[in-house]
Fold:
Amino acid sequence: MSFHAHRPCFSMECREDVLTMSETVTLEIPDELARRARALAAATHRRFEDAVVDWLRHVVDAPPIEALPDEALLDLCDGALSQGDQDTLSALLSGHREGSLSDNETERLDELMTAYRQGLVLKARALKEAVARGLRPPLADDAA
Structure:
């Protein structure tokens, strides 16, 4: 992958009362990765560029699991959506099955599903590190 910075293109955008600037870059990515990003963008009704930026943001914002102290690592292993988010997710999934969600509800469902998926990945990474440190036993291997 190559990274080429173009002349900065500054735009002001307000997110949670924070002004951010953006820079236009050109990335050369493998065809398979581009295909997956385009599929994600289409499935979530977003621009391809927005899907790629979200992926990058997720990687950059992901906590460095290997650097966490034991207690924080174990907290991640046991993490879950808040009860309120779980209840909201259940209700939205039910509405989705019935085909009765509004556009705002569909957007909220997408947000919660993204948080849920990211949480599962984070828990898996934390569990892997906890096992490597001897803090948790390895998962049982039924095939052995």
Notes: The first strand starts at residue 2 and ends at 5.
